[in-house]
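Entry type: protein chain
Record version: 2
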Amino acid sequence: MDGRRDAEDLQGDAIALATAGRARARAAGRSRGFRSARRLEAITGVALILPALFWISLLVAYPFAMALYYSVSNTVVGGGSGTFVGLANFTALLDDGSFRQTLQNSVVFTVSAVAAKAVLGVMLALILHRTLRLKRLIRGLVLLPFVIPTALSTLGWLWMFDSLYSVITWTVNRVVLGPIGFAPLEVNWLGSPALAMAAVIVVNIWRGLPFFAVTVLAGLTAIPTEFYEAAEVDGAGRWGRFWHVTYPLLKPILAVVVLFSTIFTFADFNIVYVLTRGGPQESTHLFATLSHALAFGSMQLGRGAAVSLFMFPVLVVVVALQLHYLQRDETRHA
């Protein structure tokens, strides 16, 4: 009996050892399979990222590196690689009256256009948020200025601002001034510094307004109606509901939209180039158009690259201030 019991114990121990061995083998297999899956996932992730990194390097990093190189050299178009001049291009720009005028133009253009787009965009979004007939059609039409190619739509505005055949001047003379007996106006919209700047600002507002309106509209649709109902019960009118419910909830969205719009507006090129080429008397030159004029008009590639790089620190400061405002606002409401 003792021998049979010992044999059974030995058999049980053998079975236990075999079971433990199989469990360890399965665990090792799972571990190898997990490591293999992780390795395959890492390889797949790198393979998916490589095309994006290639295009970013080709279209962003390489031009930026070349701009840095040209900005510290006296390279001219058709004149070879040039020689290293350090910061001479930048110091020369600070003494250039055209550059200082461009800096002033860029600030006026950006601040005026972004402020107008913010106010009008919120107003348009509030209108589109209401129940309207053909609401989907109206929303689609509102997007047209943003989806039409900028150069193509600006050519239409160039015709409307034409000094001889301006449809704006014709409409004002026929509809407003003619019936009340005033003499017709003759306005050279793009020939006066003040009017030319106003014209490019108006076109930029027209082009960028849908971006503001649609983004704010998305924020409006996300606000629960219960908040408005509670405010109405508390006696808040339309202005009170907007100021105490809509505006606080839209502030993060507005801050992000203003940030992107500031970057796009500050670096605008197409509108000014098609309408005025920076004139008259350099009154509408922006950083992008002045850089183009110096690099490809005056053939001073190094000076043009220096102008384009001046946008970078300015935009960094603007972005840093707006991000600081966003973070401070989030911390205050946390």
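Comment: The chain has 13 helices and no strands.
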